[in-house]
Amino acid sequence: MDLSGKNLAVLAIIFVLGFAAGYAVNYGSKEKIEKSSLSEIEEKVVNFVNTNLLKPGIEAKIVNVSEEDGFYVFDLEFSKDGNTLGYDSVYVTKDGKYLFIGKFDLSGEVENEKAEKLIDVENEPWKGDPNAKITIVEFSSYDCPFCAKFALETLPKILQNFSVKVVFKDFPIHGEVKAHEAANCAGEQGKYWEYHDVLFQRQEEWRKNESKLLEYAKELGLNVSEFEICLNSDKYREEVLKDKEEGIKLGVRGTPTFFVNGKVVEGAKPYEEFEKILKELEEK
């Protein structure tokens, strides 16, 4: 692993369903693990994660194994009652002794160009100027009150005062995948952003009663029958979870997280902070 200059990185625990301080986990004696095969390490990883890191009822399974910077990388799928909640990756040293989740650059510098290339914005909902030289990609959760604050208060000011293209990426935090699917179903009928705003405006309502998702479709004048068929088909579930997986790989740890021309901006910053960032980019 390259530990020099801007590539210096630290591995830290980041759970799909919560966060913890960074540390490495020694989950077995060195003598035993040195003799372990990869398949035995896989078994130890799954047992450790399920027993020690997840809430009751949530299970992890390995969906892919690869190597990166001298580590084994185990891609995990998290599920509850047969429903996929999300994905994350754990890193294990080649001797099988230490387990980590997540990787951070300690230099404080963001590889903007790399982030821009990694983010897939094709066929994603967007608004603003399609030819703008500034693109804001937001990883957001409809269940997140800070995301609602950005969507309803800060975003309108940005769009009013700057030429930007804003792209929305799904990052459900608490299992509210259905709300994200519903927005995509509304998008089929040309009402993505209207439905997006309603979900944020009435968070408390649909959190308690998911049937409200159909009511919102009716209120917005959608063909409710077509909307319901779309929603019940789970046709957008894979797409929603793919967005989240992409965010995790980019280092997204919570919502909202923004990539402004590739530069990471975390949290619901006040408009004034976005104004400063956007003015600097306009002057370049």
Strand count? 14
User: Multimeric state of these chains?
Assistant: single chain
Number of domains: 2
**Gyration radius over CA:** 20 Å
The structural class is alpha+beta
Fourth-level CATH superfamily of the largest domain: Glutaredoxin
Report strand %.
Answer: 25-35%
Helix content: 40-55%
What are the low-pLDDT stretches, counting only 5+ consecutive residues below 50?
1-25, 28-35, 104-110
Give the CA-CA distance, first to last residue.
34 Å
Q: Can you tell me the CATH class of the largest domain?
A: Alpha Beta
What is the level-2 CATH architecture name of the largest domain?
A: 3-Layer(aba) Sandwich
CATH topology value of the largest domain:
Glutaredoxin
- Strand neighbour order, sheet with most strands: 4-8-7-6-5
- Average pLDDT, rounded to a whole number, is 81
Determine the number of helices (DSSP H or I, runs of at least 4 residues). 11
**Element-level helix/strand string:** EEEEHHEEEEEHEEHEHHHHHHEEH
Largest sheet: 5 strands, antiparallel
What is the global morphology? globular
